[in-house]
Design goal:
The chain is mainly alpha-helical and 81 residues long. The chain contains three helices and two strands. Helix 2 runs antiparallel to helix 3.
Amino acid sequence: MVTTHLNGDMIMDLEVMIDNLSDIGCSDEQQKRAKILYGSGEKEELIRYLKKCRCGLIEEMHESQRKVDRMDHLIRKAERS
C-alpha cells in the first residue's frame, strides 16, 4: 500500500481507496466502474462518477432519515394514546 503523510496524518493512496469503495456502501458495479476510470487515467470522469455515487449515498441517507422520522411519529402517537 502506498501512503503519503500530510501534517502527521496518513492518507491512503487513491487506488487503495477505490479498492475499498464497497466499505462505504458502493456496489460492486460502481467499484468496478471507478477502477476502470482510474486505470484509464480519466481523472475528470472519475471525479464526476464518484460525485454521482456520493449523491446516491446521500439519497440513501435521506431515505433512512425519512424512515426514522416516520418511526418517531409512530412512537409519539403510541405514547399519546
